[in-house]
Predict the 3D structure of the following.
Amino acid sequence: GQQRILDAESAFQRSIRLQPKMPEAWFGLAKVAILQQDYATATSYLQRARMQSAASADRRLYDQKIEMLHA
């Protein structure tokens, strides 16, 4: 339920404090924001994940997810 979502959010935030350039943690925060129906925040987190991503295929994946949020 809601507590698991909050726990996940805290874990991803800790990951980012330790390794701010880890796109997977930003993506995790985006998923939490989507579950909370906070699509503006999810978009922001997806953009951060995209910026930190080294592989162009990953960047395209994040772009697709951002587009889906705004469809």
